[in-house]
Write a structure and sequence with these properties.
The protein is α+β, with helices and mostly antiparallel strands. It has helices at 9-15, 32-35, 45-48, 57-72, 76-88, 93-102, 105-111, 118-126, 160-168, 204-211; strands at residues 130-132, 135-136, 149-152, 178-181, 186-189. It contains ten helices and five strands, in the order ααααααααβββαββα.
Length: 213
């Protein structure tokens, strides 16, 4: 299963803003984005920070597409597949694309609070700690549907990580399109998320323009 394995803090610096790829570390003084003052990675990154260059339309579209890939942890082939699916669905293509990305199992696990970041959620899913409607799943890209129940497997609840996690879960901290039962360590997708409930860091129209070229 292909995935990005490089230093993720460089991705935030490349985009010039925090993408919160490392969970709680992104809110601490140890965050490299803060220590490096947000300038781009590379030997001459600090010089590039002071250059004033007007971006072309293509550059803005590319950067927005790259940002979305990095936030959700998908590679180019997966992103193109999701865009193709979004085009076939009724409604606005950009909204459909973000909804599909939010419905990924690793993202739902992250939104429910079972992981600090999507990368950690992806690892937990691939290690087989979660079941969907009682069936064990190890596929992070599985698309969760309304009324699907996502729960921590009984064998996994005995692990130290999940024992400690149970004390910190907050039923009221999940998005409105999800519900969480912290005692049962399970959650449910109530409905598909609306656009105003999704990530405000992204301008989906630029992504649509990029793939529509």
């Amino acid at each position: 299963m292909a995935r990005y394995t490089g230093p993720v803090c460089k991705l935030c610096r490349r985009e010039g803003e925090k993408l919160f790829l490392k969970g709680t570390r992104c809110f601490s003084p140890k965050c490299p984005f803060e220590r490096k003052r947000g300038y781009p990675p590379g030997e001459h990154g600090w010089v590039a920070r002071f250059r004033r260059r007007r971006q072309s339309d293509y550059a803005r579209q590319l950067r927005e597409k790259q940002k979305a890939k990095r936030i959700y942890g998908v590679l180019e082939r997966q992103m193109r597949r999701f865009y193709g699916m979004a085009e076939q669905l009724p409604g606005v293509t950009g909204d459909n694309l973000l909804t599909l990305l939010e419905r990924r199992l690793d993202n739902v696990v992250y939104r429910l609070g079972f992981a600090d970041s999507r990368a950690q959620a992806r690892q937990l899913v691939t290690h087989g700690h979660f079941s969907v409607n009682g069936r064990r799943l190890k596929v992070p890209s599985y698309l969760v549907r309304p009324e699907d129940e996502i729960s921590v497997r009984e064998a996994s609840r005995r692990r130290t990580y999940f024992k400690n996690l149970a004390e910190d879960l907050d039923d009221g901290a999940v998005p409105d399109w999800l519900s969480l039962d912290s005692r049962a360590m399970s959650g449910r997708m109530l409905r598909e998320p609306a656009r105003d409930e999704l990530d405000s860091l992204l301008t989906e129209q630029l992504i649509v323009e990029y793939y529509s070229r």
